[in-house]
């Protein structure tokens, strides 16, 4: 007998699924309500003031909240930090025991509180007022302590919680999370935060691998196999063996890529009983696929998959500058 069947009456599975779907429907409805709030002139004006203060702050965004709002605040801190806005999470319980020292007059405090009346936030509010630190707030209660103390208050819409007892924060925290993401994306847009910037903050892991550039993985200089068009098949074979990339570039006198000769081309030439003194230019692939050094490595992998090749030459203004093998991409975690 399953664990579920021991807990709930037989035949109530449909009701459980219905409850889950109802929770999702309430979350979706809440998000639509939040989106509609941006059509309100007062709300959108407050949002623009919020963004303006954060974008111009010389220090950091100190994000704080208690309970479920605190958990959302931690996630918001991580998203802001990784997208170009320096941020720190301040736990209200630790604030009054020395951690308020991390807040400087150059910072701004972003406070999350659904009720706006959490007593743990009191010391932070008093500190902001005493030392002139801008206080930004997100709350659902316009007449609350947090709302009245804030320099800018984002009044979140009243929504129905998914909890049947209307106690556990569910829909409201979903809105807080979504608003945090919207704020971070707006700040990214204003900063012109690019994929290159994102990679600087995510050099490790899969995200970093997808943002690495071709020039960071390619072979360069003498490690790039190359021969001239009139070189012999034997010379091309020796060059391919030296570089161990499964092929060689064919370049003109100016060093520009004009062809490619691979292991497969060599096998076909040998099968045809060609003389190894014949010019490699007769057997090369003309105008082979190439890629620029500043393209994403993930784009190089896509080209290799589409063309069913394992070696890609790297060119800049037509000049051969590197070679990239699929093994290099896979070893770096590009997928």
From TrEMBL:
Annotated coiled-coil segments of the chain: none
Keyword field: CBS domain, Isomerase, Metal-binding, Repeat, Zinc
Binding site for Zn(2+): 91
This protein's record includes keyword Zinc: yes
A Pfam family recorded for this sequence: SIS
Listed InterPro entries: CBS_dom, CBS_dom_sf, GutQ/KpsF_isomerases, KdsD/KpsF-type, SIS_dom, SIS_dom_sf, SIS_Kpsf
Residue span(s) of domain SIS: 50-193
GO BP terms, alphabetized: carbohydrate derivative metabolic process; carbohydrate metabolic process
Name of this protein: KpsF/GutQ family sugar isomerase
């Amino acid at each position: 007998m399953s664990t579920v069947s021991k807990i709930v009456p037989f035949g109530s599975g449909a009701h459980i699924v219905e409850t889950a779907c109802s929770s999702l429907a309430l979350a979706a409805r809440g998000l639509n309500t939040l989106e509609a709030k941006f059509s309100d002139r007062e709300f959108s004006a407050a949002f623009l003031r919020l963004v303006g203060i954060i974008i111009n702050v010389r220090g950091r965004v100190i994000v704080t909240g208690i309970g479920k709002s605190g958990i959302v605040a931690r996630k918001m801190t991580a998203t802001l930090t990784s997208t170009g806005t320096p941020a720190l999470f301040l736990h209200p319980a630790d604030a009054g025991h020395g951690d308020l020292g991390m807040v400087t007059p150059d910072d701004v405090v972003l406070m999350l509180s659904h009720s706006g009346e959490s007593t743990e936030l009191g010391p932070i509010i008093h500190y902001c007022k005493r030392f002139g630190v801008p206080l930004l707030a997100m709350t659902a209660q316009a007449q609350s302590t947090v709302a009245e103390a804030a320099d800018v208050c984002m009044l979140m819409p009243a929504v129905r919680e998914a909890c049947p007892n209307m106690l556990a924060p569910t829909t409201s925290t979903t809105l807080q999370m979504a608003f945090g993401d919207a704020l971070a994306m707006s700040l990214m847009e204003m900063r012109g935060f690019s994929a290159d910037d994102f990679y600087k903050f995510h050099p490790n892991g899969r995200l970093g691998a997808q943002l690495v550039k071709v020039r960071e993985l390619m072979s360069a200089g003498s490690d790039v196999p190359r021969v001239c068009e009139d070189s012999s098949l034997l010379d091309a074979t020796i060059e391919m063996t030296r570089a161990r990339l499964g092929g060689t570039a064919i370049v003109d006198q100016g060093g520009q890529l004009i062809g490619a000769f691979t292991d497969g081309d060599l096998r076909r030439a040998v099968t045809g009983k060609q003389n190894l003194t014949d010019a490699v230019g007769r057997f090369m692939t003309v105008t082979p696929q190439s890629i620029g050094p500043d393209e994403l490595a993930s784009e190089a992998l896509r080209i290799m998959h589409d063309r069913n090749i394992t070696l890609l030459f790297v060119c800049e203004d037509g000049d051969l500058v590197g070679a990239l093998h699929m093994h290099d991409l896979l070893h770096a975690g590009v997928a």
